[in-house]
TrEMBL record, chain A:
GO biological process per UniProt: cell wall organization; peptidoglycan biosynthetic process; regulation of cell shape
Bilayer-crossing regions: none
Protein name: Lipid II isoglutaminyl synthase (glutamine-hydrolyzing) subunit MurT
Pfam family, one: MurT_C
HAMAP family in UniProt: Lipid_II_synth_MurT (MF_02214)
UniProt keyword list: ATP-binding, Cell shape, Cell wall biogenesis/degradation, Ligase, Metal-binding, Nucleotide-binding, Peptidoglycan synthesis
Residue ranges occupied by any Mur ligase central domain in the UniProt entry: 55-178
PANTHER family recorded: LIPID II ISOGLUTAMINYL SYNTHASE (GLUTAMINE-HYDROLYZING) SUBUNIT MURT (PTHR23135:SF7), MUR LIGASE FAMILY MEMBER (PTHR23135)
EC number: 6.3.5.13
InterPro entries: Lipid_II_synth_MurT, Mur-like_cat_sf, Mur_ligase_cen, MurT_C
Superkingdom of source: Bacteria
Gene: murT
Pathway where it operates: Cell wall biogenesis; peptidoglycan biosynthesis
TrEMBL record, chain B:
The family this protein is said to belong to: Belongs to the CobB/CobQ family. GatD subfamily.
List of residues binding substrate: 139
Protein name: Lipid II isoglutaminyl synthase (glutamine-hydrolyzing) subunit GatD
Subunit (UniProt): Forms a heterodimer with MurT.
UniProt gene name: gatD
Gene Ontology terms: biological process: cell wall organization; cobalamin biosynthetic process; peptidoglycan biosynthetic process; regulation of cell shape
Residue ranges of coiled coil: none
HAMAP family linked to this entry: Lipid_II_synth_GatD
Keywords of this entry: Cell shape, Cell wall biogenesis/degradation, Glutamine amidotransferase, Hydrolase, Ligase, Peptidoglycan synthesis
Enzyme Commission numbers on file: 6.3.5.13, 3.5.1.2
Organism per entry: Leuconostoc gasicomitatum
Lineage: superkingdom: Bacteria
Amino acid sequence: MTLKSTLARITAKSSYWLLHDVLHRGGTSLPGKLAVSIDPNILTKIQQDFELIIVTGTNGKTLTTALITRVLQAGGYTVITNPSGSNMIQGITGTLVTAKVKPSPNGQKPVAVLEVDEANVEKIAAAIKPKMFVLTNIFRDQLDRYGEIYTTYDKIIAGIKHAPEAIVLANGDSPIFTRGDFTNERKYFGFNHIQPADYNPTVAPINTDGILSPTDHSVLNYDFITYANLGKYFSTTDSFVRPKLNYQVTSITDLTPKYSTFSIDNTPLRIEIGGLYNIYNALTAFAVGREFNVDPEKIKTAFESNAQIFGRQEALHVDGKDVIIVLIKNPVGTNSVIDMMVTEKDDFSLLALLNANYADGIDTSWIWDAEFEKLHDTNIKAVATGGERYKDLRVRLKMAGFPDQAVYEDLTQIVTAIKSLPTDKVYIAATYTAMLQLREQLGAAGYIKGGF
Amino acid sequence: MANFEISVAHLYGNLMNTYGDYGNIIALTYYAKQIGVAVNYHLVSLGDDFDADSFDFALFGGGQDYEETIVAKDLKNKADQVRHYIENDGPLLAVCGGFQLLGHYMVMADGTRVDGIGVMDHYTINMHEPKLTTLNNKRLTGNIVIKNNDTDETYHGFENHQGRTFLGKNERALGTVISGNGNNGMDQTEGVIYRNVYGSYFHGPIFTRNGNLAKRVLATALSRKYPEVDWTEKLDQIETETF
């Protein structure tokens, strides 16, 4: 280490200490900013301390990163990871330069598992050569901010090209990941839970993207679809098929809103969160664990002994009502939430909240690509709408066949809204800033401890 | 059971449906159902025939650049039928990329020129074109309000496009921009009306937020197929969603 980089590190660590231990404020951006201002090459200089895994993609980054962390820890690695939300260059720099890296109990090099925003992959990979890129999925997400899916993938590829030795471990069920002109070794994970006799050749629903074959640009067919454009695809015009999977879901036993049971490579597993999409997150963590030689039984234990990491889908009680809060932000995510509601055995009500601030995406058109019509396949008994763009959502659900809705223009009425719904179970689906406002109200009313 | 029905063609609906454009069909169906009209949906995509005389309404939505280039090639094979449909007063809503491809050509952000089928007289240049007098190199993104000069109706929506479209002869704007940018940010036009074709950059989608326009187009489609019924009168009796 040079004097400059040592100084950069000390400064970052002391500012982190000041922020966290003295001022009790979160965040790793400021320490990162300070370190870079003293030594712009600080990241490159600390890279020999650990192996780097970059986790990126549209949906599932946070939970996947948390799961990989637990899996590798169960395998005896010391793991450094970034807090949810600190997934851009400054926050990541802060995480890395302030980390206390102890040797791994298993004698291997410590591992940094980082959730990285798609547009920041290149900056990180240019500074530190990753050992592995983990690609979850790429879906259309807030077009006014992120642009098109192939543009997003190009940004990730720009990062991959900085590290030709790194393994690219990608979701093989997503056709986009068969594209890209990089030379890295590629490994794939995906679903193979359906027997060939039960294949039901089909095409993706019209409201999905990324359905063209990379070979001749024909529309792909599927033996089965798990959700959106994910599944076992093939071309009807040439020999293009889904690549061979290195890690696969071999069976699904039970899907409920609260947990799922399934097998990966014939190891039976259980996760304490509903939703097929969360099985993809578990599959990703399993694949990374196996790549780092973690025993399947240890991975199983890591999933089952860390129920609290699934806490993003929040459950709470409001005067005897069971309230489950879920984030919605794009069509695929919303459809996944609706699919999960299909597995709900109890009668329930839905309170849907739409805002269109910058963090939500300022274009509300996406609600028309989410299939709210499918709510008719659930035990839904009542629908209420609210949020700053309640008018959009009210009409969306009205046209989906839910004409009778209580409408809440103002989230200060949220507790009243919950209590007025007729069922004991209430799902609240909210966009990002609506969720923050909701939590603030529930905190102020004493239903969430410590505010938010 | 509905006594009446219309057939709807969703042109390249699996490839050009990036901004909730399918919502236009949801809205059309919503109003049709209330006046006893069934809507039969047909996806017409790559390699499919577009038999103009079998359809009462067509939607041609917007897509991503890659899909738009693939669609542009295939669309050439359907150009004669699309022209026949339009010149025969078939009602059509074209949004964003669909709007662009009915014109002569469009230029993508990276300078790639994609030929349209020229069944309408507009053309689209990109945001880097030096002849632009305003908002050079910027996408036109944000809320937009326009006024339809034929009907005095006001339409609300959201625009997000880099291409700048200029209307040609026999084309008039769908509306004059009240706030936002419209076709090119320069001439205060937004969208196009030509015969029974409505083109627009509006997402939202336009029929969901502007029920008056949805009903007008639905009445046009129905009157063309069932001229003996006063569809406007029927539609006037049901509630219009506008926001």
